[in-house]
Amino acid sequence: xxxLTSHIREDKPDFIFTKNHQGFDPEGxxxxxxxxxxxxxxxxxxxxxxxxAVDSGESISDYIAVFTWNxxxxxxxxxxxxxxxxxxxxxxxxxxxxxxxxxxxxxxRYQVDVGFVGKSYLASVEQAxxxxxxxxxxxxxxxAQRWVQSKKSYDETIKGLTLPExxxxxxxxxxxxxxxxxxxxxxxxxxxxxxxxxxxxGFKTAIFGDAGWKRLLDKKFQVEPELDYDRETPLFYNACRxxxxxxxxxxxxxxxxxxxxxxACGGFLLTDYQEALEEFFEVGKEVIxxxxxxxxxxxxxxxxxxxxxxxxxxxxxxxxxxxxxxxxHRINQIxxxxxxxxx
Length: 343
Fold this sequence. Notes:
Layout: H1 2-11, E1 16-19, H2 29-36, E2 41-45, E3 64-68, H3 74-80, E4 84-87, H4 104-110, E5 114-117, H5 122-128, H6 137-150, H7 154-159, H8 163-170, H9 174-198, E6 205-208, H10 212-216, E7 222-224, H11 233-239, E8 242-245, H12 257-264, E9 269-272, H13 275-280, E10 288-290, H14 296-305, H15 307-324, H16 327-342
Parallel strand pairs: 1-2, 2-3, 3-4, 5-6, 5-8, 6-7, 8-9, 9-10
Helix pairs in contact: 5-9, 6-9, 12-15
């Protein structure tokens, strides 16, 4: 607090900015201090808002304005007790993600027909399983598969089980039910992403991600280690003819970070359809979505053969991102909200 007070005296900030509520303590010391001196804070949550820092009502203040990248969390945040909660999507840093002229060595390493950067979620499954009751382990596989196939909610998927299966779930403790749900969610995320990636078989594809991919995919897929986000990922997005994306299974109402980053590089993007895409882009002209896994191979074949159409779509997407979806745009929005609320 003494160091913060010194900075406030020297810099005279209009407000404090933090990401994912970092710096705030559950006891509410920082929140109380800022309120006592009349200095507001903006907290942009780009992760799920189940954070230790807000477990206590002491850390909730009308001098904290919350911003979240998922509009479905707005009501949840307000139920925590925050008066101000604003939808603020992700964006890109155009100084890092930009069109590049690649050196021959970079083209040789990264240039493929189809490229994907992302986790396999196998580690998430292995981390979630210990909390799942052993008696429900096999049932979690069945629920995950049905969840992916139906695209319904978890509760609706459970209702579709047989009576004996539902009774099995009801018989365990509340904490075990939560462990079962988390295991189902992790498996569903892995299965969905895996099925999307498997649809890329037959194309010159490179997968950059965790070691789980080598355990899940056969040897016909080129699997490479994770890329450095700031240094290597922009090169890969520039080199790929088609950048492929599949969103986290439970994040069906958001636009993924990769969407903005790929387009900022001037890359062509093929991504799973999300309603949020309609908010940011002219779908079909600036970004190409697939609405089912079965569409993936035909879309890839079409855009590999039609480079002029591919380039035109990538150019329009690039222009849109620079015009509306950089971090400068998001920070300007935060500033407007803070000025209106606390001026």
